[in-house]
Specification:
- By secondary structure, the chain is mainly alpha-helical.
- It has 13 helices and 4 strands.
- Strands 1-2-4-3 form a 4-stranded mixed sheet.
- Strand 3 and strand 4 form a beta hairpin.
- It is elongated.
- The two termini are 25 Å apart.
- The relative contact order is 0.14.
- The N terminus is likely disordered.
């Protein structure tokens, strides 16, 4: 499993990042097409179905470059400011070696053992037990721990959690997650705005809707809503396309770094049921455990169950405590 994480997972994550960026113009074109149809209906002019579809299609090449520039601007801002955005949403604060030398030395020693640059260290003041890694560029990576995690875990357990997060950095999981968050954020934001605004103006009862011809206008609205829904759904699928295998691989990477599967098991047992962070869902996806995990029988879960992760660690030679700390059993 460790060998898979060191090679195939890195290649797989790099490929997914490229595919995300390549697919962006296609989804953006679909979203613009839908918006043009909605604007045509809301204009109050008489709506001709074929003319509206044709006009929207021919306008895309003119509008797409401007929309692409706006999206590139957003990507650029997010690329350089994503860590500040994450810190603002979680309350994480960067700490220096002098503030917690033992913790900083633990991180540094693990990085030296693998020839990795030492990421920044951040702390969130909360009793919750959780951690995540963030960053896009190799020289701007960060490992964030909660104060509850630092207080509740023994040194070897804390070292295992740090090793888990460093494995996410090594395997490029972190970069893929951040790119996906930026990618999904654009379409989620626009889709939410469209649906809210359409319900607010209540086109079915508006005078312009009656003037434009209810039949054609209704078809255009249906087409536009369908396209917006599809682009939003496809962008959200990106989140679930990021394999849950990454957590198994990060657990295995922690064992490879620390040579202590028991510490990783104990850390997961303590984290289980105590990891709830009041942070946005996108950040929860980055954490070592997502307390909001779930969906239809786990179909849309971003993390595998901790029980399954512990079972995998047992197969690597770890042992489960008879009386685990936390609700896992």
């Amino acid at each position: 499993m460790a060998a898979y994480g060191l090679q195939t997972q890195i290649w797989n994550n790099n490929l997914k990042s490229i595919l995300l960026l390549c697919g962006f113009p296609i989804l953006l074109s679909g979203l613009l097409f839908a918006l043009l149809l909605l604007f045509d209906v809301m204009s109050g002019r008489a709506v001709d179905l074929q003319s509206s579809l044709f006009n929207a299609g021919t306008a895309i090449p003119t509008i797409l470059p401007f929309a692409a520039l706006g999206a590139i601007g957003w990507f650029t801002i997010a690329f350089f400011a994503h860590q500040n955005m994450i810190d603002a949403s979680t309350g994480a604060k960067k700490i220096e070696r002098k503030e917690n030398p033992k913790l900083y030395n633990m991180l540094e020693n693990l990085c030296i053992s693998r020839g990795m640059p030492v990421p920044a260290l951040r702390i969130i003041e909360t009793p919750a037990l959780n951690a995540y890694a963030s960053g896009i560029r190799e020289n701007s990576m960060s490992v964030t721990l909660t104060s509850g995690l630092v207080a509740r875990l023994d040194d070897d357990e804390l070292e295992a959690v740090i090793g888990h997060e460093l494995t996410h950095i090594r395997n490029k999981d972190v970069r893929l997650l951040v790119v996906a968050i930026i990618f999904v954020g654009i379409f989620s934001f626009v889709g939410e705005i469209v649906f809210r605004s359409m319900f607010r103006v209540n086109l079915v009862r508006s005078r312009s809707f009656r003037r434009s011809g209810s039949g054609n206008a209704g078809v255009l609205i249906l087409i536009a809503f369908l396209i917006v829904g599809i682009t939003w759904f496809l962008s959200v699928l990106v989140r679930f396309a990021i394999s849950r295998r990454r957590e198994f691989l990060a657990d295995a990477g922690a064992v490879e770094l620390t040579r202590n599967p028991d510490a990783m098991i104990r850390a997961l047992q303590k984290i289980s049921g105590n990891s709830n962070l009041e942070v946005p869902p996108d950040v929860q996806q980055m954490c070592i455990e997502n307390a909001a995990n779930g969906g239809i029988s786990g179909l849309f879960a971003t993390h595998p169950p901790i029980k399954k992760r512990i079972e995998a660690l047992v197969m690597m030679g770890g042992q489960v405590q008879q009386h685990p700390v936390g609700p896992w059993g």
